[in-house]
């Protein structure tokens, strides 16, 4: 029983650390300190590499903050591979029924201001550049 409690404490500590890194990265990105933000997203991803949201926000920061489109797209691809719902949300293809969504149908008011602006900017940039798969 003691081993099991130690395991859960370690898991909680790891999650708290990853959450802390993500929170710090979000705050740094909000302050336009994008390079530092990416470093903290990377630290979080070392702990929780299968977290699609962290991959997505790293991608947003790389593209929207640093203009590193190629790296950002790799992050988005990883995020989409990890989370089917995220993949459907960012898939801008209209040719296939049930694939993607119209940008007008995104519930922007339900997202936080910073998140909303980052997502909107990235999606619009991707759509206007013709980078559809």
Molecular structure report:
There is one protein chain. This protein has 133 residues and is mostly helical. The protein has one domain (2-129): Tetratricopeptide repeat domain (Serine Threonine Protein Phosphatase 5, Tetratricopeptide repeat). It contains six helices and no strands. Helix 1 (2-30) runs antiparallel to helix 2 (34-47), helix 3 runs antiparallel to helix 4 (69-82) and helix 3 crosses helix 6. Mean pLDDT is 75; it is low at 92-98.
Q: How large is the share of residues in beta strands? A: under 5%
CATH fold topology: Serine Threonine Protein Phosphatase 5, Tetratricopeptide repeat
Runs with pLDDT <50, length 5+?
92-98
| Number of structurally distinct domains | 1
Sum up the overall morphology in one term.
Answer: globular
Please tell me the CATH architecture by its name.
Answer: Alpha Horseshoe
The beta-strand count equals 0
Helix content: over 70%
Radius of gyration: 16 Å
What is the N-to-C succession of helices and strands? HHHHHH
CATH class call: Mainly Alpha
Structural class: mainly alpha
What would CATH call the homologous superfamily? Answer: Tetratricopeptide repeat domain
Biggest pleated-sheet summary: none
The pLDDT mean sits at 75
């Amino acid at each position: 029983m003691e081993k099991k409690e130690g395991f859960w404490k370690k898991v909680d500590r790891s999650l708290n650390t990853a959450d802390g890194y993500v929170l710090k990265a979000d705050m740094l990105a909000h302050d336009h300190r994008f390079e530092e933000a990416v470093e903290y997203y990377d630290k979080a991803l070392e702990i929780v590499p299968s977290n699609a949201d962290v991959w997505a926000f790293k991608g947003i920061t790389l593209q929207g903050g640093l203009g590193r489109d190629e790296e950002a797209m790799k992050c988005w691809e990883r995020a989409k591979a990890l989370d089917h719902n995220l993949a459907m949300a960012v898939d801008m293809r209209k040719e296939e029924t049930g694939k993607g969504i119209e940008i007008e149908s995104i519930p922007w008011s339900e997202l936080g201001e910073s998140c909303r602006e980052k997502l909107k900017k990235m999606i619009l940039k991707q759509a206007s550049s013709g980078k559809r798969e």
